[in-house]
Amino acid sequence: MRRSNLPAELNRFVGRSAEQAALTALLERSRLVTVVGVGGVGKTRLALRAATEVQKRYGDGVRLAELAPLRDPELIEYALAEALGLTDHTPRPPREVLLDHLAERRLLLVVDGFEHLVEHCAPLVRELLAHAPGLSVLTVGRRPLRVAGETVFRLAPLGEADATTLLAERAVEAGAPGPPADEDAAQELCRRLDGIPLALELAAGRLPLLSVEQMLLRLDDRFRLLTQGARGALPRHQTLRTAIGWSHELCTPRERLLWARLSVFPGPFDLEAAEYVCGGRELPAEQVLDLLGGLLAQSLLTREDTPLGPAYRMLDTVAAYGAEWLAALGDTERMRRRHRDWYMGLATWCELEWFSPRQTEVAALTESALPHLRAALELCLELPEDAHLAQHLAGTLWFVWVGCGRLSEGRHWLERALALESGHEEARLKALWVLGYVAVLQGDGTAAVAALHECGERARSSRNPLAEAYATHRMGCLALLTDDMARAEELIGRALAAYRELGELNSNVLMGQVEVAMARAFRGDLEGAVVLCREVREICEERGELWTRAYALYVLGYSAWTRGAYGEARELLTECVSINHSFRDLVGLVLAIEVLALVAVSEGDPVEAAVLQGAAVPVWDTVGVRLFGSEAFDGPRSLCAERAREALGAEAYGAAFRAGQALSAAEAVERALAVGRKAAVCGAAEPSAPRPFRTAGSSAVPGTRKPAGSPTGKGGEAAGREPR
Question: What are the beta bridge partners of residue 313?
């Protein structure tokens, strides 16, 4: 398991040994330390260095949350949850989720770039520290939080020796033939730039083209322009702005224009996005690549390699300067709209490609694009005339909210969009059925019924049979999770018939078929359920679809268990766990873990079964109501617990269960995968065939104690026998 999400250093860390020692010592004495200093002074780099050095002190590791890209204060809690690796499916407020998660953990949370959200961030940090005694927080910004117990660490610029070393090293990295030849001139340049690391790096980016002496002359001109004859030295807080402005003047006109336009990107971006958003008037798209190279060479951009290809990032301070120029050009709103339009298009493409062999790529792409998608949603919500776009985008991203473990954030955006009157019925209908779907999976039946009922009524009034089918489908899903299997099969079956008539085929449609299979299994028709899921599996394999396939594998794995085909069950369920973990789909993940535990106890390994059952508990706590409060879905868990407790005794079962509860989510997944990969326990007595389950309304098999409401299997002559 990764103990941190701290980024790797891209070049050598120069100097700051005394500051690093002092900061790590402060972290030992204080639970809240804030590193403050002027922009570009190296606060983040030092904080990450110190966090890396002390991470062994924290049993639950170190996590970094970057708040600079956020504009909406309501997203702070989601950003912290994301940094902590939380995937919460419940309708609980995200703050409550954070408090519960951190309560028993020993962890260092690094919060960077909070200053523009300080009024909302400060009370949250205070509350987290009050409720989580093992939590320490290292915040990084231009001003303190001003929270009781906060220790402020003020970071000064680099000393002369370290500043000169940094300038020389970065100059060579930028392509200069060697360090500056005139050491005295280099030291003078460092003094003029006040030893601010970002200013020095910007200067170093110019050394392949200019000598130090030429740079000093240009800086003299820039200083005189800014001070306008003011007495005394230039205040330090203006030094970085001077250096950035000087770098701006040294750029070509088109580089300056690109710099200004790139300021609308709140996070890393790729070449195609930059070409679309920034290309156009006065800046042909085909020139963007070369201009990006120019900005990169001058240290105004950084480049990082990602699994999806190269990505570029502009430092916040540099972007802020560009944003001022963009505003001066009167072009901010147009560029924000172009940025919004690109990511609207990306979301639309991703929704289509979700049902394709690119599904894994789509999940990774939307994960990396999340800061931009949030910015697009915020812009749509800001502009009353774009309310329909907010509803459309929030609905289009259903696969991110549902398939990639972001139910809580999805509900946040959907409810905000639906609070507006857009006048565009189709966009509203999509947002409504997606909200209903999210609420169903969160276990919030009241909100689900309200949204789906409104969707159905409006769809009928506006003659939109597709939206009506989706509303009917999700009402059927709600019936499934509340143990009304007959109604679930009837409603989802009606929706599937409508989908066929309308020519609709995608992951949602196939998931409907899996849900009908579940309803049939719970009513006793396991054979019929298998037929449906095998068909889904074949279509998914043809289309390269993985997410729905995982749920079909869950049903097929359970079916294999009922036949005593434990090796087949393990293989199917292992694939199910692996797929759902890759998509952050905790619902599918934990359902598969529950059945894997049942396979383990059936193979004669009750200890491992109890450990897996314990490991499922914290995952269910994240998902919401355990097993949806459904007796049917609780069947495998109940039977497994009964058999494992009987085999081990209450005390040993409880110890193994608690050991499982102590596992992290990643450790629980690894444990489940290990169970899925191993062969049946060597030397174990031949396990009996599993007992059939009974659901409400089905007949009990004589002489058998069975938990009510479980999937019904066909155990044949072995029905009712306990494992030997």
Answer: 302
Are the C-beta atoms of residues 512 and 518 closer than 8 Å to each other?
Answer: no
CA 485, 488, 493, 494 dihedral sign is positive
Alpha-carbon distance values, 188 to 40, 161, 176, 212, 594 (Å): 19, 12, 19, 9, 68
Q: Give the three-class secondary structure for 470.
A: helix
For residue 150, the one-letter residue type is E
CA distance 458 to 471: 10
Q: Which residues of 208-245 are buried (b: 16+ CB within 10 A; e: fewer)?
A: eeeebeebbeebeebbeeeeeeeeeebeeebbbbbbbb
Per DSSP, the three-state class of 174 is helix
Strands of the sheet containing 32-36, edge to edge, are 62-66, 107-112, 135-141, 32-36, 151-154
Q: Tell me, what's the pLDDT at 684?
A: 39
Inter-residue contact 588 to 555 (CB < 8 Å): no
The three-class DSSP label of residue 152 is: strand
d(CA 188, CA 282): 38
- Please report, in angstroms and rounded to a whole number, the separation of the first and last CA atoms in the chain: 37
DSSP annotation string for 516-550 = HHHHHHHTT-HHHHHHHHHHHHHHHHHHT--HHHH
**DSSP 8-state secondary structure symbol assigned to residue 269:** B
- What DSSP element (H or E) covers 597? helix 586-602
CB 33 within 8 A of CB 26: yes
Eight-state DSSP code of residue 344: H
| Burial readout 326-357 (b: 16 or more C-beta within 10 A, e: otherwise) | beeeebbeebbbbbbebbbebbeebbebbbee
Smallest CA-to-CA distance from 27 within 147, 124, 151 is with 151
- Cβ atoms of 582 and 307 within 8 Å: the answer is no
Is the predicted pLDDT of residue 710 greater than 90, yes or no?
no
- What is the C-alpha separation between 273 and 452, in angstroms, rounded? 36
Closest CA to 510 of 485, 469, 540, 468: 540
Distance CA 577, CA 579 (A): 6
Q: Cα–Cα distance between 722 and 74 in angstroms, integer?
A: 53
Q: Evaluate the CA torsion angle 139, 143, 149, 151 in order and state its sign.
A: positive
| CA atoms of 135 and 156, how far apart (whole Å) | 27
Q: pLDDT for 682-691, tens place per residue?
A: 333 344 444 4
pLDDT digits (tens, 9 = 90+) for 184-212: 888 888 888 878 888 888 888 878 877 88
User: How far is residue 722 CA from its own chain's centroid?
Assistant: 43
Dump pLDDT digits (tens) for 478-513.
999 999 999 999 999 999 999 999 999 999 999 999
User: What average pLDDT does the chain have?
Assistant: 86
Does the pLDDT value for residue 721 go beyond 70? Answer: no
H/E stretch holding 340 reads helix 332-353
pLDDT band for 549, please (50, 70, 90 cuts).
very high
* 39 token code pair: 């922009």
CA distance 253 to 30: 49
